[in-house]
Design a protein that fits this description.
Number of strands: 15
Helix content: 25-40%
Mean pLDDT: 97
CATH topology of the largest domain: Aspartate Aminotransferase, domain 2
Radius of gyration: 22 Å
CATH class of the largest domain: Alpha Beta
Number of domains: 2
Number of helices: 13
Largest sheet: 7 strands, mixed
Length: 403
C-alpha cells in the first residue's frame, strides 16, 4: 500500500474502510469532550454496546426465574458456554470440539500442563520465551518444581531474536511460547514452531493472550497440541473475562491423558446423575471443572458475535494496514522494537521512547496507551474500533513532543 502523510489520505482511508461500522458498536472513552485515541486494546479491549444488554438479560432471567434460568431462560445457563463455541473456533482456527470458554488464562495453562507436561528423567525440559509475561514464567517454573525437577536446569529460555530450532532436542518435553510477545509485539511463527517441536517428539502449546482476536490463527491445521488465552484484550470480554482453551481433536477421546477433573467436564448425558466415576466429555469441554460465570460469558458472547460477522481475515487485513501506516508515519522519527514485517507482528507496535515525557505527553493529548520500563511505549490500533484518523493524530502528538 502506498501511504501518504496527509489529512486527505486519512479521510479517504476511513471512508473506504469496510469495517468502519464497528467503531460505533463500542463505547469510546472521552477526553476533553471528544473520543480519546484508545490504543490499549492489548491490555483491555473496549466495551461493546451490546455487552450491557447481554448481562441485563441474564439478570432479568435470574430475577424472574431463579434456578429455573438454567433450563427456561432465554439463553439457558446450563448450555450457555456452548453458545460461544462456534465463534471461538472461528477466532483461533479450530473445530468446535477443540475449544471451550472456561476459567482464566493461567488456570487453564496449569490444567493443560497437568495433562500435557509429563516429564521423565530423559525428557523434562520446557522451552519458554525469556521475555514471556511473568505469569507464564511463574506457571512453568512451578510445574517443573511440582514434578521434582529444577527450573535452573529444566527451563530453556528463548532469547529475543534467537532461532528456536537449535534449542529443540530429545530432552525437551514441552514448548510453551506466547503467540505474540507482550513486550515487543513480535508474532511468532506458530506453524513452524509446532512442526519443529513435533519432529523432535515434543508437545507444543501456546499462550495466545496477545494473539487471540489479533493474529490469524489456524490451530487445528497447524496441529498445535494445546493452547489457552484470556478474553479481555482483543476479544473485548471485559476485565477478568472468562478465558478460553484449545485441545486438538486427536486428543478428544484420549482417556489415557491425566487431568484434574470437575463435574462440568463430565459427560453431559449422565452429569446430573451425580455418579462417583468421572467420564470426560469428548474434546476440550472435558477439561472444564465448574460451571462458568454467566455474567462473565455474556459480554464475551456479545463481542464474539461481531468477530464471527466481521471475519478474522478482514480484521487482520485492516490491522496490517493500521500498523503499516503508523510505522510509515514514525519512520525516521522513532525506533520500533516490533518487527518491520507485518507478518511478524499483530496490532501492537512497541516504540522506544527517549524518556517517559513522551508517554506523559501522549496521555495529556488524549491517548490511552501503555508504558513499560525502561523505555517502551506500547500502542495497539485495533481494527474493530480504531481508525486511520486515530493513527494520524497519534503520530502527530508523538512526533511533536518536546524533549
Amino acid at each position: 500500500m502506498n501511504y501518504e502523510n496527509s489529512a486527505e489520505f486519512v479521510k479517504k482511508m476511513d471512508a473506504d474502510d469496510p469495517l468502519a461500522k464497528y467503531r460505533g458498536q463500542f463505547h469510546i472513552p472521552q477526553h476533553n469532550g471528544q473520543d480519546c485515541i484508545y490504543f490499549c486494546g492489548n491490555s483491555l479491549g473496549l466495551q461493546p454496546v451490546t455487552a450491557a444488554p447481554a448481562i441485563q438479560q441474564e439478570l432479568e432471567d435470574w430475577k424472574n426465574l431463579g434456578v429455573e434460568g438454567h433450563f427456561k431462560g432465554k439463553n439457558p445457563w446450563k448450555d450457555y458456554h456452548e453458545f460461544l463455541t462456534e465463534q471461538l473456533a472461528h477466532v483461533v482456527g479450530a473445530k468446535p470440539v477443540e475449544v471451550v470458554a472456561m476459567n482464566n488464562l493461567t488456570v487453564n495453562l496449569h490444567l493443560l500442563m497437568a495433562s500435557f507436561y509429563r516429564p521423565t528423567k530423559e525428557r523434562h525440559k520446557i522451552i519458554i520465551e525469556q521475555s514471556a509475561f511473568p505469569s507464564d514464567q511463574y506457571a512453568v517454573k512451578s510445574q517443573i518444581a511440582f514434578h521434582g525437577f529444577d527450573p535452573a536446569t529444566s527451563l530453556i529460555e528463548l532469547k529475543t531474536g534467537e532461532d528456536i530450532e537449535p534449542l529443540i532436542d530429545e530432552s525437551v518435553a514441552l514448548i510453551l511460547i506466547g503467540g505474540v510477545n507482550y513486550y515487543t509485539g513480535e508474532l511468532f511463527d506458530l506453524e513452524k514452531i509446532t512442526r519443529l517441536g513435533h519432529a523432535k517428539g515434543c508437545i507444543v502449546g501456546f499462550d495466545l493472550a496477545h494473539a487471540a482476536g489479533n493474529a490469524l490463527l489456524k490451530l487445528h491445521d497447524w496441529s498445535v497440541d494445546f493452547a489457552a488465552w484470556c478474553s479481555y484484550k482483543y476479544l473485548n470480554g471485559g476485565p477478568g473475562a472468562v478465558a478460553g482453551a484449545f485441545v486438538h481433536e486427536r486428543f478428544a477421546n484420549d482417556h489415557t491423558l491425566p487431568r484434574f477433573a470437575g463435574w462440568w467436564g463430565h459427560d453431559k448425558k449422565s452429569r446430573f446423575k451425580m455418579g462417583p466415576d468421572f467420564k470426560p466429555i469428548a474434546g476440550a469441554e472435558g477439561w472444564q471443572l465448574s460451571n462458568p460465570s454467566i455474567f462473565g460469558l455474556a459480554p464475551l458472547r456479545a463481542s464474539l458475535n461481531m468477530f464471527y460477522e466481521a471475519k478474522m481475515e478482514n480484521l487482520r487485513a485492516k490491522s496490517e494496514a493500521l500498523t503499516g501506516y503508523l510505522a510509515f508515519l514514525l519512520a525516521g522519527k522513532a525506533e520500533l522494537m516490533t518487527p518491520a514485517d507485518p507478518a511478524r507482528r499483530g496490532c501492537q507496535l512497541s516504540i522506544r521512547a527517549k524518556s517517559k515525557k513522551v508517554f506523559d505527553a501522549l496521555t495529556e493529548g488524549g491517548v490511552v496507551c501503555d508504558w513499560r520500563e525502561p523505555d517502551c511505549v506500547r500502542v495497539a490500533p485495533v481494527p474493530f474500533y480504531n481508525t486511520f484518523s486515530d493513527v494520524y493524530r497519534f503520530a502527530k502528538i508523538f512526533t511533536e513532543v518536546p524533549l
